[in-house]
Write a structure and sequence with these properties.
Layout (H helix, E strand, L loop, with lengths): L1 E3 L7 E4 L37
Length: 52
């Protein structure tokens, strides 16, 4: 499940996929980008990553 939240309290589900049953290895790249000249300072927080 992939969710986002502007305040860490209310969450919006963006995507839900079933995990493959035979997954043994995976490479995970996580990032965030805000590309607006002169825009406000922003931050990205990644919490509760569940990699079962």
């Amino acid at each position: 499940m992939f969710e986002t939240s502007p305040d860490g309290r209310s969450w919006t589900t963006r995507s839900m996929l079933e995990a493959p049953g035979d997954l043994r290895t995976a490479k995970l790249d996580i990032g965030a980008c805000y590309d607006a000249p002169g825009g406000p300072a922003t931050q990205a927080r990644f919490d509760d990553l569940n990699l079962r």
